[in-house]
Amino acid sequence: MNYRHIYHAGNFADVLKHAVLARLVTYLKQKDKAFRVLDTHAGIGLYDLSSEEAQKTGEWRDGIGRLITAELPAPVAAILEPYLSVVRDLNPEGGLTHYPGSPKLMRMLFRPQDRLSAMELHPDDYETLHRLFDGDFQSRITRLDGWLALGAHLPPKEKRGLVLVDPPFEVDGEYERLADGLTKAYRRFQGGIYCLWYPLKKGAPIKEFHEALKALDIPKMLVAELSVRSDRNTTGLAGSGLVIVNPPYTLKGELDILLPFLKAHLTQDRFASARCFWLRGETPLNRGT
After folding, report:
1. How do strand 115-119 and strand 36-39 relate by DSSP bridges?
2. How many CB atoms neighbour CB 207 within 10 A?
3. Residue 269: CA atoms inside 13 Å, Cβ hemisphere, count?
4. What is the model's pTM?
5. What 3-state DSSP class applies to 253?
6. Between the CA of residue 187 and those of 51, 160, 174, 181, 209, what are the distances in Å?
7. In DSSP terms, which residues pair with 100 in a beta bridge?
8. Termini Cα distance of the chain
């Protein structure tokens, strides 16, 4: 309840998360049938990068700020096009003033038949999010603990969908809670795509988290991780990871193209690294670069 994403909006972790989310939504749009996105920890939806909070940390400058001005090779540009098109549409006069949170990003990529269910527990952030989507009949904004939504809002009536679980990791045990939440959600909605976000920082139980996920009876889980600096001299965020359950068959190849590019352009020291591998599914672990 203390976490405020405005201080971190548009940072390197957002770049990876939002680039992948845009690809997942694009994949779902390949079929005419409607789908629903469930965003369990939605935030305020749209961030003002000129605000005092965003300027105080300036994290966006080493994230979307670098990416938006980078020269993109054609394969990378194609992968990033859905994500960057939304960012540019929110800044029609150029530059970077507005940055989309996950619900706004995905909503802007929808067709008329697609739907959004966004959960936010923080009272002020809920009110801001609710105002942002006021009058939008394709979106339902609910003040709710996002962990409860994994039971109460699944399966969606559309029977197709994407579930984003992006908790703030304010308290101990969140990695375990993430694994438990996936277990409960998957029982209710086995055909959905799930995208789970987690931080990479000093002392984080990543190996144990991955082992807990591998023990689940879920056939396909893909992992993408990007670290922009060493975690040795900081207690803060050094990188982030995504676990994608039921990933599109094209996603692994796209991430093998995208991650080395992001590593090269978002690096903050010589210890930057990136990797993409199957936790369960297609091929054994690839340690990446």
Report:
1. parallel
2. 8
3. 9
4. 0.94
5. helix
6. 42, 15, 20, 10, 19
7. 46
8. 36
Helical (H) or strand (E) element with 179: helix 174-188
If you search the block for the tokens 């540019």, which residue do you land on?
88
Measuring CA to CA, which residue among 4, 82, 16 is closest to residue 225?
A: 16
Q: Which of 262, 176, 232, 265 is CA-nearest to residue 275?
A: 262
Query: From CA 154, how far away is CA 186, in angstroms rounded?
Result: 9
- What lies within 8 Å, CB to CB, of 219 at 6+ separation is 280, 281
CA atoms within 13 A on the CB side of 265: 22
Cis preceding-peptide flag for 73 (omega within 30 of 0): no
SS3 track for 200-227: ECCCCCHHHHHHHHHCCCCCCEEEEEEE
Q: What angle do CA 126, 15, 288 make, to 5 degrees?
A: 135
pLDDT digits (tens, 9 = 90+) for 174-185: 999 999 999 999
Cβ(23)–Cβ(79) below 8 Å: yes
Task: Report the sign of the C-alpha dihedral through residues 264, 268, 270, 272, in that order.
Answer: negative
* Residue 60 and residue 49 in contact, taking contact as beta carbons nearer than 8 Å: yes
For 53-93, write each residue's pLDDT tens digit.
889 888 999 999 999 999 999 999 999 999 999 999 999 99
For the question of residue 134 being annotated catalytic, the response is no
Look at phi and psi of residue 126 and say left if phi exceeds 0, alpha if psi is from -120 to 50, else beta.
alpha
Distance between CA atoms of 233 and 269, rounded to whole angstroms? 12
Pick the catalytic residue from 14, 39, 62, 166.
166
Q: How many Å apart are CA 123 and CA 5, to the nearest integer?
A: 14
**Cβ atoms of 206 and 241 closer than 8 Å:** yes
Cβ-in-10-Å burial (0-12, 13-18, 19+) of 81 comes to middle
Classified as helix, coil or strand, 129 is helix
Amino acid making up residue 150: L
Beta bridge partners of 196: 165, 243
